[in-house]
Design goal:
Number of domains: 1
Structural class: alpha/beta
CATH architecture: 3-Layer(aba) Sandwich
Radius of gyration: 16 Å
Strand content: 15-25%
Number of helices: 6
CATH class: Alpha Beta
Order of helices and strands: EHEHEHEHEHEEH
Number of strands: 7
Distance between the termini: 9 Å
Length: 192
């Protein structure tokens, strides 16, 4: 990754599908002087994403792309990103899989946060699977996005102990709290 030159921050888009807690956290992080990124776009695959409210709250441009009705959706997203001079993408609870072609165009510049200690529990329902398997630990991972689901090079992880009393709700909360620490730390690691 390119080093930061002067005070120029890297123009970043965050892709979301849900509540946007990681998005909000990344926005707050981007406002810090030490942060290497500025969040210039919020992209969602659904207008039901609660996280879209942060676009209005923080004055960030948002755009919704309908993956169901549009075969050229990725082409349109790419054009939109290029048009807004975006050079880095953070996926934060984005529930669509990007094509190999899209990922190649943004080669090495897309990262994701995943609620498990990858390579364990790729995909969905990670906490439920960890509890079911009586795992002692779980955690979260920030990794580069590749064409294979949750398989890109790991940037950073945080490990969390699973308590005997934990259920999927309590574990989700515990892991999410750690995700909010991990995502900014991983971004710092990439650009420093």
């Amino acid at each position: 990754m390119e080093k930061l030159t002067g005070l120029k921050k890297i123009r970043t888009a965050v892709f979301i599908s849900g509540t946007g807690t990681n998005l909000k956290n990344l926005i707050k992080f981007s406002k810090l002087k030490k942060s290497p990124i500025s969040i210039n776009l919020i992209i969602s695959n659904t207008n039901k994403a609660k996280g879209l409210k942060y676009a209005d709250q923080f004055g960030i441009k948002k755009k919704i792309f309908n993956f169901l009705k549009n075969n050229d959706v990725e082409k349109n997203i790419l054009a939109f990103l290029i048009n807004h001079k975006i050079s880095f993408i953070c996926l934060a609870g984005f529930m669509k899989i990007l094509s190999k072609n899209f990922i190649k165009k943004f080669n090495g510049k897309i990262i994701n946060i995943h609620p498990s200690l990858l390579p364990k529990y790729k995909g969905l329902n990670t906490h439920k699977r960890a509890i079911k398997n009586l795992d002692k630990f779980t955690g979260c991972t920030v990794h580069y996005v590749t064409a294979k689901l949750d398989s890109g090079k790991i940037i950073m992880q945080i490990k969390i102990k699973i308590a005997a009393k934990d259920n999927t709700t309590s574990l989700t909360k515990k892991v999410l709290k750690k995700e909010h620490e991990l995502y900014p730390a991983a971004i710092m690691k990439i650009f420093n």
